[in-house]
UniProtKB/TrEMBL annotation, chains A, B:
Family per similarity comment: Belongs to the PRA-CH family.
PANTHER family in alphabetical order: HISTIDINE BIOSYNTHESIS BIFUNCTIONAL PROTEIN, HISTIDINE BIOSYNTHESIS BIFUNCTIONAL PROTEIN HIS7
Gene: hisI
Record's protein name: Phosphoribosyl-AMP cyclohydrolase
Main subcellular localisation: cytoplasm
Domain of life of the native organism: Bacteria
Amino acid sequence: MTSSIFASGGDKSEIETGLSFQPKFDKDGLIAVVITDHISAEVLMVGYMNDEALKRTIDTCEAWYWSRSRQEYWKKGGTSGQIQKVMEIRTDCDQDAIVLKVSVEGNGATCHVGYNSCFFRKVVKTEDGTIALTSPDQGRVYDPKDVYGEK
Amino acid sequence: MTSSIFASGGDKSEIETGLSFQPKFDKDGLIAVVITDHISAEVLMVGYMNDEALKRTIDTCEAWYWSRSRQEYWKKGGTSGQIQKVMEIRTDCDQDAIVLKVSVEGNGATCHVGYNSCFFRKVVKTEDGTIALTSPDQGRVYDPKDVYGEK
């Protein structure tokens, strides 16, 4: 897919080691974004942006995403107050992924079920060989009902 | 897509907060994986696994991926020696992303162009308003020619 906003067409060497930003969107027009805490470096969530969401994020220094399930733009924190102030943006060698280093406003949490990070469970092998998740190893920062109401 | 190896079919609450591992693969059968250094927490790369690659990763504690460009399995480090020993695996609330905390063997680098992390460039706005990348802000750990040969 050719992006309508960003440059494209660089050769492999230019994309991998050059200074031209040419984000590579997938066939659905999306790029994967890893959101980390700018101080602890903890991975908080993974989201997806299309070119317009990426442009809004760069222009406003607040994270915008494209919701694959709702098929709409969403500014993270629009409802919850958990705005992600963007402190740094990085891309990888083949420019098909983005890392955002953010400072989270409001209650400081990221996950909609109440935890600081969406990655609050480990994947482990149990004694009988099955693969399961551990109980959350961090406490809830907030009760989702207080932020999103009863569901 | 229904995974052939892992459980599926849990309701929203079970998936988001329960202890059953039900990874959600996309319509191409893939799940996004964020690889971080198990000590510094730095994001090293983003890769993709299908269910078999994820199973191999869990079974062997070494990271296996599905290459979207080559359409084949690849064990990270098979050529370069940069094996990723998996210290911890996490999944997120909706179980459609994975975080691997790894220890990198060999020369300790991850990126195929020679850097410790694939995210060696920042995305910045220049003075004239264009969006560009910065020069790498980390030194090369190795010369790719020494590992992969001349290309």
